[in-house]
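As a representative case, the lines below give one protein's residues and fold tokens.
***
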Amino acid sequence: MVKSEATKEEKEFILKKVPQQKPFRFIEEIKELTEEHIVSQYRYKDDEYFYEGHFPGNPVTPGVIMIETMAQAGLVALGIYLLMKDDKLDDSIMLFSDSEVEFSNMVKPGELITVRAEKIFYRRKKLKAKVELRKENGEVAAAGVMSGILQ
């Protein structure tokens, strides 16, 4: 069964509902969204606060920021959409609970990244997803399985 695509209005609503906001929201646009997957994009700005100290003179996006970016799309935004579809949207927030992620490329300032997450399961307030973060040139920078739980 093919799940219907979220409307533009639903995508914009979800972006407003994501509890992480500037300067710590790493989703600029939700490109695709169904009950089974999400695709989002974000361009790491040259002046992001974390580049100043990571690494001076040769900045690289920290792995923890890449994991946060993956979790915001693959757990938080997708989780909000699933709650909406179940008519259970409230003030609960999706908290990151665990991950197994491998890094294969560094991401530099100014790069546009795409996060794609596919739901593995969603039950008893827990969401588990297969998530990957790709660079603008299509190379995978990080990929793995992540979980979150509603609180």
